[in-house]
Amino acid sequence: MLTRALQLSRELLDVAEGGDLQALLGLGAERLRLLQAARSGPTPMGSSEGALLKEIAELNDRAIGFLEHRRRIKAREIDTAAVGRRAVAAYSTTRLQR
Fold this sequence. Notes:
Layout: H1 2-18, H2 21-39, H3 47-91
């Protein structure tokens, strides 16, 4: 289960880099189910499972970083558009003097 969760984490990172949020949600949900199933198993996790979990966590952190970067870009675009709208509103009341 953890091996498949790691594979999904790698796919999730690629999808996060591309910005496809719908695919990201699907992969994240599937990975969450696998991780929960692995956690509820009857045997304690060994060092190899711990290494897999560490790699999954690192990939998750990188995916979050990509998404945060995309969010900041979108916020800048929205701010720029708002500045433009305010400028249009401010100058739309002026008339060309002849």
